[in-house]
Specification:
mainly alpha, elongated
C-alpha cells in the first residue's frame, strides 16, 4: 500500500511538472513572438531609407537600431528594473556604449584596414557597421524578452499582454 501511495505521489508530481513545463513553453513562445514584433516594427521604420543610396541605408539602419534601443530602455524602466533607477541609468548608458563600440569596431574592420587605407573601399562599407549595431540590438531585445518569460511568474508581463 505504501508503495502504491509513493508511486501515485511520484506520478502526480510528474504530471504537475509537465503541465507547468507546457505553460512555461507557451510563455517562452509568446515572448519570442512579442520580441519579433518589436524587431520587425523597428526594421519597418527604415525600410524606405534602406532601399536608397548607402548614406540612407546607414542612417535608416541606425534608426532601426535606435528604435530597438529605446524599446529595451522602456522595458528596463517599466518592467525589469522598475524599482531601480540607478540600474535603469546604467542600462541606458551601457546600450549607448554598445552602439558606439560596436559601430566603431565594425567601422574599423570594414573601412580602416590596410587595403582601405591605401584606396577607397567604397561607400557600401561605411553603412555596414550600422547593420551590425542593429543586429546586436535585436539580440538584446530577444534577451530581454527571454528574461521576462523566465520570470513571468514574478513580473506577469508576458502572460498579461494580449
Amino acid at each position: 500500500m505504501r508503495c502504491l501511495f509513493i508511486l501515485t505521489v511520484f506520478f502526480l508530481g510528474l504530471a504537475t511538472h509537465a503541465l507547468a513545463d507546457d505553460s512555461y513553453q507557451e510563455t517562452v513562445k509568446k515572448a519570442e513572438v512579442m520580441a519579433q514584433k518589436i524587431i520587425d516594427g523597428c526594421w519597418a521604420i527604415s525600410e524606405e531609407d534602406r532601399s536608397g543610396p548607402p548614406v540612407s541605408v546607414g542612417s535608416g539602419t541606425m534608426n532601426s537600431a535606435l528604435c530597438m534601443r529605446d524599446h529595451i530602455n522602456d522595458l528596463a524602466r517599466t518592467v525589469l528594473f522598475k524599482k531601480q533607477p540607478d540600474k535603469q541609468k546604467e542600462i541606458a548608458e551601457t546600450l549607448d556604449k554598445i552602439i558606439d563600440d560596436t559601430g566603431g569596431f565594425y567601422g574599423n574592420l570594414y573601412t580602416a584596414h590596410d587595403v582601405c587605407a591605401k584606396q577607397d573601399c567604397g561607400s557600401m562599407w561605411v553603412a555596414m557597421p550600422n547593420d551590425d549595431v542593429a543586429k546586436t540590438m535585436e539580440k538584446i531585445v530577444r534577451d530581454f524578452y527571454r528574461q521576462l518569460a523566465e520570470w513571468d511568474s514574478d513580473y506577469g508581463f508576458i502572460t498579461s499582454t494580449p
